[in-house]
Design brief:
The chain is of the alpha/beta class. It has a single domain (9-144), classed as Response regulator (Rossmann fold, 3-Layer(aba) Sandwich). The chain has helices at 17-29, 43-50, 66-76, 94-102, 118-128, 137-144, and strands spanning 9-13, 33-37, 54-58, 82-86, 107-110, 176-177, 180-181. The chain has a five-stranded parallel β-sheet with strand order 2-1-3-4-5, with helices on both faces. Strands 6-7 form a two-stranded antiparallel sheet. Strand 1, helix 1 and strand 2 form a beta-alpha-beta unit. The termini are far apart.
Amino acid sequence: MAPTVSSPLVLVIQSLPLQGQLWRVALESQGFQIHQEWPEVDILAAIATHNPKLVILDMTSGLFNPYALCRDVQARFPGMPIVLTCHEHRDIDPVERRWALQQGAAELMPALSPHKGLVDSIKRVIQLAAADISFSATALNAVVAPPASSTIGSSDEQAAPEPTLEPKPEVKPKLMYRGRPIN
């Protein structure tokens, strides 16, 4: 679905280019217009300039306090929904989510992953944007899912699917006591 002139605008601020691209592709497939910025910009000025329907903000850039920013946004732009995102490889603690909501965020969710929770995240963003847009799984799958191979079921050799957005392997930290590793 191509965005129209009346499509709601979403401001996406992500520190990882891959995350920004995934948000852009997924939301444009649902009919949103997207404006992307880097976390280094003046976020309050970007909101004032573009007047988005929703802001999706990476809270892990380390360039600002995301909770203070949510309070500032709510003070200057009351009712502006802000979706805070964090790294995809960790779950959100209920206490952390509750704190984010108390500070003015509309939602706290893991970063997008085509392997886990993508549909629920996009549905939640549509709901928070209060847009007259219906979720389209077909449109989302068309832009996010790898293309189907024409050889499936028709030959002995099947091409292995390309690892498009492979999740990073989880690294187990060393246990330390007083600066020394524990075995």
